[in-house]
Amino acid sequence: MRLLGNTSMSDVTTTRALNAGLWNLLFLLFVPTGVHAQATGAAVDLVASDTYLDPVARQLHEAASANWAALDETVRRYTARVQQRIAAMIRAPLKDRLLYRNESAARVFWDRDHDTFVQVLGANAQYPGKQYAEIESFLEDLTIDEAFDPGGDRLIFGFGNRGDRDGPENEDWGDPNTNDFWVAHPLAGSADSLYQYQSGDTLTLTLPDGRRLTTVELKVIPRELSVHLISGALWIDTETGALVRGIYRLSDQFDAMRDVPDARDEQEDGNFDLVPGIFKPWTFDLQMVAVEYALWDFKVWLPRSMRVEGRASAGILKFPIEMDIAYRIENVVLEDDIGTEAYAQSVLEERHFDTRAEAMAFLAELMSEEDGVPYQTLGTEGRGGRGNGNRFLAPEDRARIANSPHLPPPIWEDAPGFASADELASMVEKLADIPLPRVNGIPWAANWGLQRPDLMRYNRVEGLAVGARFQARFGSFMGPISFQSTGFIGTSDFDPKVRLGFDRSSVRRRWELGFYREIRAMDPRGRYLELGNSLNALLFGRDDGEYFKATGADLRLTPPESERQSWTLRGWAERQDPLGVNTSVALAHLFDSKWRFRRNIAADRIEEAGGELSLMPWWGADPLLPQFGIEIRASGAAWRPVGDDDEVRDYARLRTVLRSAIPLVGGRWRVGVEAGAGTSWGDLPVQRNFLLGGSATLRGYTASVMSGTSYGRGRLELARVFPASTVSFFGDGGWAGDRDLFDSDDVLYSVGVGGSILDGLIRMDISRGLRGPFKRTRFDLYLDAIL
∠692-695-768 over CA atoms, to 5°? Predict the structure, then answer.
C-alpha cells in the first residue's frame, strides 16, 4: 500500500535535552557524518606510490571506492524492526555511576521517495532523578531516528545522506576557517594523501543455497596521527566491492578547544577563562565503531548491527558512552521488483489523501486493527534522509511502551542481534593489529595552576603548591611517544618536585616510564594529593594524608587511559625520605594562633626496589541491581637504610577489600557492605605500614589513629534511596597492629549518618567514634563511596 500526502514536513526533531545531547555527541561531532571528500562516479585514481602495501589492497580499495561513489538506487523501500540501546556513565576509581540509559524499539517503514513512517514499539529511560521515568514522558525521550538510507554511506551506517558526499570546492581536507568538524573518508577521492591500505584476512561464507561468498579485510592505516583520520579495517565483498563489515576508531583524541574552530576562537578570546580548570580540557576518545551488514535475499547488503564506544571528558569528569543498534529486516522492495507480478499481488491498494493528518489517522487505524492495540499519531517529527521526514505512531496505552516485549535488555547484557562480549573483545584485538600512525612534527601544550585540575593542591607539608606541566608527542621506532614534565613548588617548603614521564599507548595497554622527585602519600588509594583532601586541609585544617619524599624511577603497565583502570602493574627503584609539617594555615583556624596541623608520620630514610600488582574490577552498572567489587593489591620489595650497604631487608604485603551494594524493597532501600584485610611478611619500613582512620577506612576517628603490619576493617550501611540521592545509616569497625598480638579489645567502632549524590559520587558523613581516646565527632566530605 502506498500513502501519499500533499503537506510538507518541518525539519524538527523533538527529544529531551539529555538524550539529544548524547545522540549529537556521538553522531554529529565524533562519527564522520560530515565527511569532506571529493567523490566521483567511478573508481578513484590514486597516485601516491606507497598507498598500497600489497597488490590485493589496490584491487580491494578500487572496488570499494567505486561501490561507495556510486549512489545505490537498488532499494526502493523496506520494513525493518530496529532496537536501540545507549548508556552513559560517570567514571570514578571505585566504580562507574549510571548517568543515563535508554532502550527503544520501533518498526521503520522507509520509502526512497516519501517520508519515513515509524511505529513506536517500546521505549524506556533511566537517569538520576528519573528512575524508570513516568510513562507520559517516554515519548519526549524518544530518539528513534534510525531509518537508514540504503543509498547513503555504508561506513557510517547510513546516518549520513547524499549530501555527505559533497566535499569542499577546493578539495581542502581541513580548512581551519570552516566551523565543521570533519573526518576524511578512506574511500573518497584524494584519500591516498592521508591513508595507506593493506590486505588482511580472508573470510569465506557458505550461503544457504550453496554459493560461496568471499570477503577480504582491507586495513586502513592513517599516514599520521590526526583526529581527522580513522584507523581500522573494512571487509569487502570481492565480487561487488560492497562493504560487509567495518571496525574503526579515530586515530587521535578529539579536543574541542583544538579541533572545533568556534571553540578555539572562544578560547583565544578568553571566553573560557571563567571555566574552572577542574573541568578542562573537553575531549572525546572514539574507541570503536563497528558496523556489520547481512545479505538480503542474496541480492543486496543491508544493515545488521552497529556498535559505538567512546569516552567524553571535561577535566576530572569522565563519561564512558556506549550505543548499540540492531536491525532485523522484515521486507525489502528492490527497483527490479517494481512491475513484476509478485509485486503487483503484494500491493493491496493505492490511496491518496489531501493532508498528512488524514494519512496518519488512517495508518493509526490500520495498525490498531493489525496489532489489536489502539495507536495514535504523535506530534513528533524527525529529519529523514533525501529531504524527507519522519512520522511517528505509538500505542494509546502508554504503559505498553514502557513494558513492551520488543525492548532490548540494557547495553551491559548480551542479547540476540547485538555483538556479544566475546565478539567485542575480538573487535578490539582487530583494532590493535592496525599499525600505529606516525606523528608529524612535535605537537605540544603547556599549562600551569588553575588551567588544569591537578596543578594546584594544598597540604600540611607544602602549603599551597602550584604546578606546571609541559606535554609533547613525537614519533619513534615504537610508534607515537608522549612526553610529560610536571613540576610543583610549595609556598611553605619551597622544595621543588618534578616528574618526567614517557608513555606509549595502544588499543590494549599503556606503558609509562617515569623519573621523579616528588611527594608521595603512604596510602596512595586515599588520593590525598587530589582536590578533595586539599579542600579539607585548606578549609578545615584536616589533612588525612601521611607523606614522604620519593626520588627515583618507575615503570607502569595499565589499560589505555580511555578505559577503566581496573588493573595496574608497577615496578620502582627509589630513595625515600621523611617530610615534616611546614604550615599552620587553615581558614577555619585563621584566628587561632595556637592551632597547628597534626604531625606527619616520620618515614624511614631508605633505598627501595620493588613491584606491585593491583586488581580493581567492579561488576554491575545499574543501581537498581546488585553491584560487586573487589580490590587486591600484592606488593614486595627489598630495601636498606640510606648509607648502610650491608643491611638489606625485604617484605611482602597483601591487601584485599570486598565491596557490595544490594537493592532491597524494589530499589527503595540499599544495603552496602565493605570488608577489608591486609597483612605482611618480613621487615616493613614505617611508610609501608597499614593505616586506619578517616573517611576512607574508619570514620569517627582521626587519620592514622591505628597503624601496623596487619589490619582488618569493615563497614555496614543501610540507605534510603531517593531520586539522584541517598540517606545512609552506617557503622564502621577496624583494627591495625601486629597480627600475632591481636586483641578484640583494641577494635575501634563508630556510627553515623550520611548522604550522597549520584550513587555515592559525592558523599557527606557525620560520624562518631565509640571507643578509644581518639574518638571524634567528624564531618567528612569526599568522593567515590559505595552508596
Answer: 90
